[in-house]
Amino acid sequence: xxxxxxxxxxxxxxxxxxxxxxxxxxxxxxxxxxxxxxxxxxxxxxxxxxxxxxxxxxxxxxxxxxxxxxxxxxxxxxxxxxxxxxxxxxxxxxxxxxxxxxxxxxxxxxxxxxxxxxxxxxxxxxxxxxxxxxxxxxxxxxxxxxxxxxxxxxxxxxxxxxxxxxxxxxxxxxxxxxxxxxxxxxxxxxxxxxxxxxxxxxxxxxxxxxxxxxxxxxxxxxxxxxxxxxxxxxxxxxxxxxxxxxxxxxxxxxxxxxxxxxxxxxxxxxxxxxxxxxxxxxxxxxxxxxxxxxxxxxxxxxxxxxxxxxxxxxxxxxxxxxxxxxxxxxxxxxxxxxxxxxxxxxxxxxxxxxxxxxxxxxxxxxxxxxxxxxxxxxxxxxxxxxxxxxxxxxxxxxxxxxxxxxxxxxxxxxxxxxxxxxxxxxxxxxxxxxxxxxxxxxxxxxxxxxxxxxxxxxxxxxxxxxxxxxxxxxxxxxxxxxxxxxxxxxxxxxxxxxxxxxxxxxxxxxxxxxxxxxxxxxxxxxxxxxxxxxxxxxxxxxxxxxxxxxxxxxxxxxxxxxxxxxxxxxxxxxxxxxxxxxxxxxxxxxxxxxxxxxxxxxxxxxxxxxxxxxxxxxxxxxxxxxxxxxxxxxxxxxx
Length: 639
Known about the structure:
By secondary structure, the protein is an alpha/beta fold. It has helices at 3-19, 49-52, 56-70, 91-103, 132-150, 166-178, 184-187, 191-213, 217-227, 230-242, 249-260, 262-268, 271-284, 288-312, 322-325, 328-337, 375-390, 404-416, 450-468, 476-496, 508-511, 519-539, 553-563, 565-575, 579-598, 607-630; strands spanning 29-32, 41-44, 74-80, 84-89, 116-120, 154-161, 318-321, 344-346, 352-355, 363-367, 394-400, 425-430, 433-435, 504-506.
């Protein structure tokens, strides 16, 4: 039983003894007292005034006296203010708490609550490698999964791999045209990077083709037709001028070809576009040659993804492939369309829609006029498949905030289709993450590649470590493991400490600072706990009983922090916010660093103090490790 529950039970018992009245434990309100004030917890007595028939201040006086008699863990209990009874927890409770944490297998974890949840994250395309945005997505998804598991949920981690479509065919076509049978083995290029290179090649060749077309009479005619639409141009100019952008003829020409006509050109005029779309049609018709090429290039990408996921320390319980699921949603829509109470309807052009205007979401097309599926339709089908596979109570989608509207529509459609889990679907929406300009730049054009970023941070950590010369006597293999551990801890903490919905800038050099609010700062606190243990082992110090030890202010603060972890886990799970865990770890590390700098841990004149401080350091180490695992941060023993 945690201390809050223990206090509440004793308040109920005190009221029964004092006033012969029964109070439900849910009616008892307590709150933690701010750390700069005296006391640990405050019992609020206002809710009992009507039942008992006394003033809240008098009830506080009575309860304070009774709780001191009942609870041997209290050092003090006093009435404070008009309706508060302030309690100070005695040292005996904290010394016993240290032993309890050390005896707990998974500190901070809660028993099963009987509910299951599916968490979807990553979900990349197979035409390019993972990038910085994927890093934030994967770290949020994995950490959220671990936190929900610790909060008592049965969790399944999944992703939907977007392995079909014209964008995939662009890479395939480019390789077929210009690849000269290049493979990851022959080129020495990681598989997903190699396929991504051909995606870039396609875009380069397409832009060359498009620029040549823009010089034609036909292109000029299309531009003039657009410019002649005065209403459209006037509206555009007003919008751009509000953003401080000029709208001269040169700008309008560039805007037309870049933002207005590019997709139409690809779909209706481009030779390369026609070839890519033709390849997709052959894929859908199960053309053997195209299917073999598709499977081969996808296999390169999957191997590359596996390496990237291993670097990041994330994994999945089940993979879904769009190529296998994209027709499921269409079947669901058509089945519903043919039912008596269909939520869908057809328009004159043959397209299928749903009207969500009563939910302030407008109309939404779910099948094009040619009968092909939309992304929303595929997501409907995939959700149904997952319920078939797992029968989950909840589903969490980790997807960037550009898709906020999409998920509002999806969840509303799932509800109207009668899915029991639909009321508990949650879009963990996150903002963009950008990289500061400077030392580390992307090696893949404007996209910040995930593998390269991780490697660059490891290089920075290595350089800093070698400057400090703290790992002498450690093998090269162990050094490299430590550098990776610190680099990934820096990356994960820096990204996860920020509330998901916020846009953020990742500063690689700031992330590895040992003195700031960083992963290495937290990891260094753990390293200090291990150095204490090594001192004990080296000096052969025997630990003694510390039941009667009187805690210092900083020692009490540390244990109050440790005590909060189970509650923080529930809070983070409720909010789907790994930042709650990350910032909790920083606060605990800060208190331990303060303790380290102001305390003689091995006190030769006080064996009980030495014993307690060693055990408390072990508790801090265990808590940092336990919390760290929830957000994927490993705790090194040296750094």
